[in-house]
């Protein structure tokens, strides 16, 4: 999971991690990886 490498989501509840991951997908990841 690329997101976990950039921003650890382990401490977050599974549902919270999923909610955070949606807006990040294709948005923040482009800024971080690109």
How much of the residues is beta strand, in percent?
A: under 5%
C-alpha Rg (nearest Å): 9 Å
Order of helices and strands: HHH
What is the overall shape? flat
Number of helices: 3
- The helicity comes to 55-70%
The major sheet is characterized as: none
Set out the fold topology.
Layout: H1 2-6, H2 14-24, H3 28-33
Short description:
65% of the residues lie in helices and 0% in strands.
Outline the structure in words.
This protein has 34 residues and is mostly helical. It is 65% helix and 0% strand. The protein has three helices and no strands. The chain is flat, with a radius of gyration of 9 Å.
Keywords:
34 residues; mainly alpha; 0% strand; flat
């Amino acid at each position: 999971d690329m997101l976990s490498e950039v921003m650890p989501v382990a401490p977050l509840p599974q549902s919270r991690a999923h909610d955070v991951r949606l807006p990040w997908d294709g948005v923040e990841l482009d800024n971080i990886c690109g």
